[in-house]
Write a structure and sequence with these properties.
The complex is a heterodimer of chains A (259) and B (389). With 259 residues, chain A is an alpha/beta fold. Chain A is 27% helix and 24% strand. The chains are: A alpha/beta (259), B alpha+beta (389). Bound molecules: flavin-adenine dinucleotide (FAD) (2 copies).
Chain lengths: 259, 389
């Protein structure tokens, strides 16, 4: 089975994240880049499927040059090779044009199964899996907490508010996963050393047959009009218990529409 | 010069640091309180290949080197020493002697399972009668009888020797006597004793001041019989083998000590920035600042000392003195930092629920195990050619 995992480099959530004042895009140089956490679950699931069914796992990353760190982490976990879609023209792409560029790259790579994390910690749109499936004409199986493949049949458990839905489809398909699905492995030293020797192919937009006018900041349908720093946290409200503490706490919660 | 920032080392350090933070830190306090061996954590350490770090790939290891092991020990001990010493003893004392001195059959039999952490190894040198003067204190004997070694005696304080997954214990024993310089000296050899061999009894766990989530036992051997081929390496080479094993082990203990010292720095920096006394965070007081600076200095110098010893070891240069210096400096740093960190935490530092309480309890043994601080000084003086040392 030919599995492609989409892995994104995001600014470390433990550090302060900022937008750039010039073009109002994320300042990717200001913070350390780390693997988007949910994508680690996607890589793990791909590796488990490969271990069970054989095949190959390819990492696909769209991002600036420094995203190679992230690619190497995914390779150190055990993926076989990587494709790095990187081009200045892609800077500022919104979800729609990102899905277009990624879909073009995926068509070039070829796949039986595409696996993604269900959202990234920076943009948090959570739409990429659905958009990719649409563009690729493949079934979308999103928010999976369990994935099973049998021949060309794929079944997932999709988490819902009330439990889960069982969703079936035929490969090729696009799957997004949630963190309940597995426990990602930590890269071993052997994995880390092997990652250095694994092939990483860098594609520019022309290599992936991406139309320059359909990507980047200028082509984005959504625009950040204005932004400001989050206000500092205000002092909390102290409820003094004079026998009626419970009722006061309840009143407070009701006033905030929590209850 | 050892390239400690080399990608592979840096990535390994990061991977283990993350593991320690995410897997070990949240649960280890409870194991420690219950004095329980953390099988699930050890299994996960095995899954990420930590037990196979310096073991060649042909035996199921990671094909790394001893410095990689040291980095892993440092990052684990930064969070917890019980799991770090479990790894250290299993690899440095359990697996490495088999890798270094074992026959092809012994390596093939034991290393693949030791390298994955599926099985733990141990090394029994110390006896109730003495751990510093090993030949003088040794009473355990092994005699050949009908193609089998018959072992009698006991061992004290043996790490990893009584877990459910302990597979093999290397036992140092007197296998005869030799004439040397007109004196009769004991001939010491190492014999591999599989766990569960009849006549090999593991006593109940000691109640320890620290390392409470690690396994330490007293062992006894009563007409315990193992095949003659379980002799590790050459007969009569036991003493030389463990001197070599301990030289390496000291670098590993130094790395572990640096981890504990660093853990004290991490915790103190954070806490001193949060705790308020007399209207200001206590990190505003010079008394606290100087403590933190001193802790950093000790950690930094100890780290350089163990890196230097490891560098010489990997380059194949003599490193006995450097290893002793590293172990001495690093264990002192751990002890001093634990004292300072506990002080900075005030009353909370005396509570087991905070990591510094554990650091305080875990630091002292570092000045004792794998050669006491006095032994390190003896070795250093001897390597300097001081007469009579
Ligand atoms: C938790 C724990 C785990 C351990 N794990 C292992 C293990 O896995 N395998 C193993 O074989 N051992 C193990 N040990 C034993 C450890 O290595 C010994 O405790 C240590 O070597 C000291 O030996 P001893 O306890 O017999 O002290 P002693 O040798 O009795 O020393 C007592 C004191 O006398 C000092 N001293 C001795 N001789 C001299 C001298 N000539 N000049 C000056 N001072 C001297 C020592 O430095 C020390 O301060 C472990 C110990 C502990 C506590
Ligand atoms: C087992 C135990 C029993 C106890 N029993 C009692 C009891 O019976 N009754 C009772 O009232 N209390 C008791 N205590 C509390 C004990 O007296 C306090 O823990 C101690 O006074 C320190 O206070 P603290 O823990 O709040 O530390 P903090 O006051 O928070 O101090 C933290 C650190 O900051 C340092 N520091 C603070 N201010 C300054 C400054 N201006 N300049 C430089 N350094 C500074 C302190 O020296 C310390 O190192 C007990 C504590 C323990 C652990």
């Amino acid at each position: 089975m030919n599995i492609v995992v989409c892995v994104k480099q995001v600014p470390d959530t433990a550090t302060e994240r900022k937008l750039r004042s010039d073009d109002k895009t994320l300042d990717r140089d200001a913070a350390d880049g780390v693997v988007n956490e949910l994508d680690e679950y996607a890589v793990e699931e791909a590796l488990r499927l490969k271990e069970a069914h054989g095949g190959e796992v390819t990492v696909l990353t769209m991002g600036p040059a420094k995203a190679t760190d992230t690619i190497r982490k995914a390779l150190a976990m055990g993926a076989d090779k990587a494709v790095h879609l990187s081009d200045d023209a892609l800077h500022g792409s919104d979800a729609l044009s990102t899905s277009y560029a990624m879909a073009q790259a995926l068509k070039k790579i070829g796949f039986d199964l595409v696996i993604l994390g269900s959202e990234s910690t920076d943009a948090r749109t959570g739409v990429l899996a659905a958009m990719l499936a649409e563009r690729l004409g493949a079934p979308q199986l999103t928010l999976a907490r369990k994935v099973e493949v049998d021949g060309s049949a794929i079944v997932i458990e999709r988490i819902t508010d009330y439990g889960y839905d069982k969703v079936e489809a035929t490969l090729p398909a696009v799957v997004s996963v949630v963190e309940k699905i597995n426990e990602p492995r930590y890269p071993s030293f052997k994995g880390i050393m092997a990652a250095k020797k694994k092939p990483v192919e860098t594609l520019g937009i022309a290599d992936a047959s991406v139309d320059a006018s359909a990507v980047g900041l200028a082509a984005a349908y959504s625009e950040v009009a204005e932004f400001s720093a989050a206000p500092p946290r205000a002092a909390g409200t102290v409820v003094k218990d004079e026998g009626d503490g419970g009722a006061k706490a309840a009143d407070f919660l009701a006033s905030k529409k929590f209850i | 010069m050892l390239d400690v920032e080399h990608d592979e080392y840096a990535e390994l350090r990061e991977s283990v640091a993350r593991f320690a933070r995410e897997v070990v830190a949240p649960v280890i306090g409870d194991y420690y309180e219950r004095c329980e061996f953390p099988y699930d954590i050890v299994a996960k350490m095995g899954a990420m290949g930590l037990f196979g770090l310096p073991i060649p790939e042909e035996y199921g290891g990671m094909g790394g080197d001893y410095f990689a092991l040291c980095l892993a020990l440092e990052e684990l001990a930064r969070v917890d020493s019980s799991v770090a010493i479990t790894l250290e003893a299993a690899v440095s004392l359990g697996a490495m002697p088999i890798l270094r001195f074992g026959t092809a059959e012994q390596k093939a039999r034991w290393l693949p399972r030791l390298a994955t952490g599926e099985m733990l190894g141990a090394f029994g040198l110390t006896e109730p009668g003495g751990g510093t003067d090993v030949p003088g204190g040794m009473r355990t004997t092994a005699t050949l009888d009908g193609g089998e070694w018959v072992i009698n005696g006991s061992k004290a304080f043996i790490t990893n020797s009584g877990t459910d997954i302990t597979g093999v214990v290397g036992v140092a024993a007197i296998t005869g006597h030799r004439e040397r310089g007109g004196r009769t000296v004991p001939e010491i050899s190492t014999i591999l004793v599989p766990a569960g061999t009849p006549g090999f009894t593991v006593s109940k766990k000691y109640s320890k001041v620290g390392w409470s989530a690690s396994d330490t036992r007293e062992l006894s051997f009563s007409d315990c019989r193992v095949p003659e081929e379980n002799l590790l390496g050459e007969r009569g080479r036991g003493y030389a083998q463990f001197l070599q094993t301990l030289d390496e082990g000291r670098v590993a203990i130094a790395a572990l000590s640096v981890g504990l010292a660093q853990g004290c720095v991490d915790e103190s920096l954070r806490y001193a920035g949060e705790r308020v006394a007399f209207g200001r965070e206590i990190n505003r007081y010079q008394a606290i600042q100087f403590k933190i600076a001193d802790m950093e200095v000790r950690t930094h110098t100890a780290r350089l000392a163990y890196h230097h010893a490891a560098e010489r070891m990997l380059a194949g240069l003599p490193f006995k003195k450097e290893a002793a210096i590293a172990k001495l400096v690093a264990s002192n740093a751990a002890m001093d930092n634990a004292r300072d960190a506990t002080q900075i935490f005030g009353g909370y530092g005396f509570m087991n629920e905070y990591p510094v309480g554990r650091f305080y309890r875990d630091a002292k043994i570092l000045e004792i195990g794998e050669g006491t601080s006095e032994v390190q000084r003896m070795l250093i003086a001897r390597e300097m050619g001081v007469p009579g040392a």
